[in-house]
Model the fold of this input.
Amino acid sequence: MATYLRRALAGADDFRFVSAYFTIHGYALLADQLETVGRTRFLFGEPSSVEDPDPGEKESKAFALTEGGLEPRHMLAQKALARRCTQWIQKTAVEIRSISRANFLHGKMYLTTSPHGQAGVVGSSNFTKRGLGGSHQPNLEINLATENQDTVQELQAWFDQLWADDGRTEDVKQQVLAALAHIGKDYAPETVYYKTLYEVFRQEIAARQAGDDSATTTGFKDSQVWNALYQFQQDGARSVIAKLEKHNGCILADSVGLGKTYTALAVIKYFELCNERVLVLCPRKLYENWSLYPASNGHPQNPFPEDRFGYTLLAHTDLSRTSGYSGNVDLANFNWSNYNLLVIDESHNFRNDAGGRYQRLLKEVIQAGCKTKVLMLSATPVNTSLIDLRNQIYLMTEGRGQAFQDSLGVGNLRTLMDRAQKEFKRWEQQQAQGERRDKAQLLDQLGADFLRLLNG
Done:
C-alpha cells in the first residue's frame, strides 16, 4: 500500500484520505511525498482516534508507546519524527477533520490528483505502519485501486460532501497538534525510565496488587518460606501467582542457582492456604530434595516445619507405572486428576509431546478431573527448538491452541511457534553465512504475538 501511494503522490496537487487512525510511523513511510503535496485533507473515521494515537494493533507493549510492535531503534527516532510531522501539519495546506459520531464510518479511502491523472484506493488499510504494509509483519488488508476517472470523481464528490458537512464532521487539527506536542516533548531521563517500567509491568502491577490482598487474607506473608526468600524471589513468587491465576499456567525459567525450588515452595504454600490440593512431579534424582518439606515426612532437616506443607510428591517416571508404590503412594489406586495445582520440576523433560509420559500427564492429570493450574520449573525450557517450549505451554493450556486468544490476543499457538522457529532458524543461519546476527532484528522478526506470549 505504501509503495502504491508513493507513486500516486509523486507530484500530486491534492490528497484526500479517510482512516480510522493516523500515526507518525505511518506518516514516516510517506513523509517525503506528503511534504510536496499541494493540499492534503485527512478525515478521521472515528472520533476517539484523535485522543488515542495507538490503534491497538495487538502489539508488544514492551516497545509500544505510539504505535505497537516497534523496535527500540524506531522508538528512539519517535520524538524527531513527531516534530517533523508537526511541521508538516502546521502548513495551511494540511487540513484535518473528524467524524463526530462513533461507529458511523468504517471504510478507508485514499484519493490523489496529479498532472499524471487521478487515482483512488478503497479498502481496509489504516494510515499506520502495519496498515500501509511497512512492517515485517504487516496487517492482512484488502484494498481496491482504481484510476478510472469517473470512479475517482464519484469518490471525490462523496468525500467533499462529507467533508463540508459541519453536522457530521469537525475540525480537529489543533487537537492532533496538541497530541503530537505531547509525543515530541522533552522529558527528564528519570521520567522516561519510570514511564517505561510502568508500561512494561502495568498489568503485572495490577495483578500483584490484587494478589497482595489475598496474601494478607490467607496469612501467606507470615509463612516461614515467604520470609526466607530474597526480595527477587518474593517478586518472582508474586509474578508466578498472578500468571497462574490469570493464565492457568506459568514457566519459571530462572537460571541455575537462583532458588527456583524455594520460589516454587512459596507459590505452593500460597495455594495450600487457599485450600487447593498440590501435586509435585520431579525427576527421580531430585525426589529426596522435594521430600524434605512435606510435614507428613517429619524430616528433621526441614527448614520450614511450621508451614506444614501438604503436597503430594511423585517422580516423572511414575507416569509410566500403574502399580506399586512411590514413597507412600499406592499407584494402583492413585487419583491423578484430583489436584488444583501441578508443579513440574525440570519441565523440559516433557518437551516431546509424542511421549507416553507426556500424553498421560496431559490427559489424566491436567485434562481430567478438576481444573488444574500448571507451574513448570526449568532453567532450560528450550533445548533444541522453540517447539520444546510450545509443548510445555500446551500443558498449561490443556492442549488448546487458542487458549490465549482472549487474555493475550495471541492466535493459534502451533502456527505462532512454528513461524517463530523458522525465523529463529533463519537468524541462526546468518552467522553460518558470515553475516552479522542482529538481535534487534530477531525480536522484530519473531513478532509481537510471540513476545507478548513470553511476557504474558
